[in-house]
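Bug: token stream looks shifted between consecutive jobs. Job 1:
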Amino acid sequence: MGSVPAEIDGSGEGRLLMQRRYVTVDVFTDAVFGGNPLAVVLDAAGLAPGRMQAIAAEFNYAETTFVLPARGAGNTAHVRIFTPRSEVPFAGHPNVGTAVVLARELEAQGNSPTDLLLFEEAAGLVPMRVLREGGLVIGAELRAPEPLTTRSLASAQDAADCLSLSPSDIELAIHPPQVLSVGLPFLVVEVASREALRRARPNVAAHERILPSIGTDAVYAYCRGSRPEELHARMFSPLDGIVEDPATGSAAAATISRLAALRSEPDASIAWRIEQGIEMGRPSLLLGRTEKHGGAVTAVHVAGRAVPVMHGFLNVPPG
């Protein structure tokens, strides 16, 4: 963290602006301008929550992360995650992107390469496994901080209304529309076909009418691919300033955890492949992994690549 010379503000008075470093990455992709953009603000110690919220609104990405010193011995960092409108306790692509940025930063500073990072977040500790290719950090895999919780149910009509679809487009054979969470709640809805998923659009009035009362502000819709472990997905959260999200790791983790729990195998390690962002022109690939023992899902992981896009400094007024 540093300072820049006094600037002239709107009142004509000089003000000392503090510089905060940032890096942006595109997450769940190996190509720039694909995946889900993320801003990672380094040197965030001393920033007030209101200032963090203002910075997140300035970037206007689905999420922005702020990296602070770890509170607990042995942990890598304390990470706070903000959407353009609010702080969230956990999210998928912010963890993957932040892990890639921090692992590269630590190595650039002369630290020994590490393959495990541990982030402190509001939802709990989030272990991150660094992924490498030819020694270079190219991605990361998170382990969800909470076991799956299954919450409020929604009717096919309400789910369809949220997605601007008809009730016949909602698939009910495996599970009903339901709020699921492994750290952040989503209404998870299976739709009957890829064509129905393409037609889905967020209905803001329906979101306002339905979602707050069932404990969420977002809808994650998916359909099956050519195999049961392949999913196509879209996520809508206009109530949180995110009309559509290109890649949603926390919702993917909750969904595959639920699907794994519903399968008949008592013990299984299942690999999942989730495509998202196609309709937005920002194709994303999320690789999931669930561990099931004695009929219960004991761990859920989501992995992906991330590529750097921009870096620079924020000029932040003091206070």
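Job 2, same session, no restart:
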Amino acid sequence: MSGLPCSVAAFSLQRMKLNPSFFYSWNMVLWMNFYAEYGNKVKRWKGFRVLGCDGSNISLVNRPELQKYFGGQSNQTSSFVVAKTFYCYDVLNKMILFPQIAPYRYGELRMACGIIESGVIQEDMLLIFDRYFSNYKMVALLQFQERPIKYVIRVNENLNIAKHFLYSRKQSTEIKLFPSPASIDGLKQYGYIVQKDTPIKVRLIRIKLSSGKTEILMTNLWEEEGYKVSEFKALYSKRWGVESNIDFQKNILQLESWSGLTPISVMQDFYATVFVSNLHFLLIKQAQKTIDDIMINKKYPMQVNNNKAFGKIKENLIFLFVREDVPEILRTLHAYFIRSPLPIRKNRSFPRIRKNPMSKSKFRTFTNYKPAY
């Protein structure tokens, strides 16, 4: 008989039958249809979809089953159960494409390499990475594909290539990278055989941040192809979009408030949160266009209030998939989204506060915090 509640034990038993990959596939259907439907309205940079690629730690409930599967960190007084996540985020269209979750010790670099080698990166995608990924192995995997993948990577300032380039005072140059023993061994795992004298050509570019600090970028966007030095500062700054989306997931979608205490339930929650994030930004797109049109004379550009918008989406999320009056629900959501927009104050920056790595989570993760719906 429909409409009757089930017990907590029955619900928990039934959810364990749902493979977390269902939410991953559901998310893939969502973003693939988005690109297909929007067509030439999809935002691009010089013809590329710009993917900010980065990972994050997420805190889990400290339970033996989760500790055994995901691992974590510990010291003399306490232990933390932590999972590692990785995202390829379309920073211009606000879509997460290839989310990954793995045990803590798996590592962001390994997750990024796995995505590249899986062949899912398409020809019109440009990948932007932080300095943790500035090594021969990553560059080799990107350039050794049948169609080399375009990328921009911030170079670790402690590397010799960065020090020599800074000393040269050039704005742009092309150099050859050579592998370390670790890179040679790492590439063997993916079927690539390189020697210590196997070179890879890369382009180095100097950019100066508003703080006055100089950063070095590594790329295969060549000058002769029309990519000017002056364009790279703004391009690399777009990578911050993936950081903002991770913040949105953790602080508004409450990613770290888990509805279950098993590895399967954690993975279900993770991929479901990614799906909801993509659905959220897809639903507010038309409202943002309306705000842009009706508030054109404001002192600051205005944007949809994501916190309030998600609160309304959460109330109607299930109805979008089970009710027949979906157009009416969408009209109601649109009317709500355009109320109380927030100003966008550009060019603001705040010092980044480095947290203790043992307590990166905003709050302690407790059990039974998030509703299981």
